Structure prediction request, 342 residues.
Amino acid sequence: MKSILLASVALAGFAFGAHAAGIPGAPPPFDQGGVKIALVSYLSAGDFFQAYQSGAEAQAKALGIDLRVFPGRQDASEERAQIEQAINLGVKGLVIDHGLPESLKDVAQKALDAGIKVVAFDVNLDNPKIPQVEQSDHELSRLSLQQAIRENGASFKAGYVYVAGFAPLDRRDETWREIKAANPGIAEVVRIGAVNDTTAATVADQAKAALRAHPEITVFFAPYDEFARGVKLALNELELADKVKIYSADVSTADIGEITEPGSPWVATVATNPAVVGAVSIRAAALAVAGQDLPHDIVVAPTLLTQAALRAADIHTIEQLNAKLPAFGHSPAATAAWIPQP
Ligand code: SR1
Prediction:
């Protein structure tokens, strides 16, 4: 069902909305409307990426952009081919969302050579002409680990979930290494990880084996919500939910439910609203297409969300978080007076 939906979105490809005929007073070409921009993703499965895409679509609609969405299927050659298709469609802007840098650098340069403005989210294309959107991953990782230290002291045996090659996970890993170096009592006793169509289920199987082999683990650092879900599944199945605590990244309404349910081992996450990050990515591409100034690093700041605070504030949904924490629901990044917010 989901793939039928994604395919129809990709085929239809249009998101004309409130400003389909152009935004009065906006710089060209946004004064005319119908500016073609492509969003090409590497991953589409999971709450984060679905919310990211929804946020991008809502911002595109508010800007009268004709957004072409190319959903990701964890396939580097397909992502390359989709970028080629976007170039051939004559888009004016291109957002590249995740991916493997080595398979994208030349095709991203080809887009630039064709006069297309390119923005990258969470993939380092090593190109000064390509602004980079990110969630301040070092800070995100630091906040999550500082919470782990507050709750467990600076000496514990940890399991860690990591897959190298994804820019946000690599940045979070840099901070994990720094924190371990600064706190010699923290020992990483096992490392697991997978990113695929069924990340949480794969990580759950790995975590079960890891926890059986290392009963001394009391903390799991799982800095991606699909990782955290996997570790939580394993802990529940092994009836270890009261012995091990999970510290993660990302949040969705479903995640809030998992964090706040009675007896949940998932005690903290650090997150942005992914729909806001999607909107920021589209605004950045629009500013670039309009020839307006854009910093190279566009950062959406994350927020620490603890189980205790979510329960105390009786928060169950992303909408309630947006209402409670205005900085979570909006970002000042890549804005301009002529850009309507979704
Ligand atoms: C496989 S990379 C997963 C991460 O990408 C985004 O940055 C999300 O925060 C997620 O944790």
Observations:
- The pocket of 5-S-methyl-5-thio-alpha-D-ribofuranose is lined by residues 48, 122, 135, 166, 168-169, 195, 224, 249-250 (CB under 6 Å).
- The first helix runs from residue 2 to 12.
